[in-house]
Design a protein that fits this description.
Blueprint (H helix, E strand, L loop, with lengths): L5 E5 L18 E6 L3 E3 L11 E7 L3 E9 L13 H4 L2 H13 L7 E9 L2 E8 L4 E8 L2 E8 L2 H16 L2 E2 L1
Antiparallel strand pairs: 1-2, 2-10, 3-4, 4-5, 5-9, 6-7, 7-8, 8-9
Length: 173
């Protein structure tokens, strides 16, 4: 069942999000969600803590969050415009940040890995289970962007195509 009424969220240019002294502003990103998905306040007590930049959710369909982390956590100095390829191949990247996103080791949980390119930027896309998660990763500026879309078993079963569409809509602009 597909529904009409999708909307695109774009991170406001002036939204704060320091993530440490000396970091460049966060390059805006965008993604599409069905009507009914709403922004949820972020707490530093959340899994992923201070690096969660945004949360969205729908009680019926699932939830998503965006982690924006300094690339220096994953690799030595890569310059001012790091690429996901410089951080590593898809396997290395999911093994490095996957536990932070899902709260446990990702070994044996990665169902699929894809690499796509949009407007010259490479995106790594993963599907994990359990827990059910679709993760899109890319790098821009001196930050790693991790976009995670997840749902419980019933949400996954009923809304998988929409959740996948949300996950694959993520772009850094």
């Amino acid at each position: 069942m597909t529904k009409t009424g999708w909307r695109t969220y774009r991170r406001p240019d002036d939204k704060s999000g320091g993530h440490g002294v000396g970091w460049s502003p966060i390059i805006p990103y965008l993604f599409s969600v069905p009507q009914g998905w709403e922004e949820v306040p972020v707490s530093i007590a959340d899994l992923g803590g201070t690096e969660i930049d945004l949360r969205f959710g729908s009680s019926k369909e699932g939830r998503l969050f965006v982690i924006v982390a300094p690339v220096l956590r994953f690799a030595d100095y890569l310059g001012e415009n790091a690429t996901i390829e410089q951080i590593g191949p898809p396997e290395k990247v999911i093994n490095a940040f996957g536990p932070e996103v899902i709260g446990e080791n990702v070994e044996g949980k990665v169902l699929s890995m894809n690499v796509e390119e949009h407007s010259g930027r490479r995106y790594y896309q993963y599907e994990l289970e359990p827990p059910h998660a679709l993760i899109t990763a890319t790098a821009a500026g001196n930050r790693l962007y991790l976009f995670n879309v997840t749902g419980n078993g019933l949400q996954w079963k009923r809304h998988y195509q929409d959740l996948k569409r949300i996950a694959y809509s993520f772009r850094v602009v």
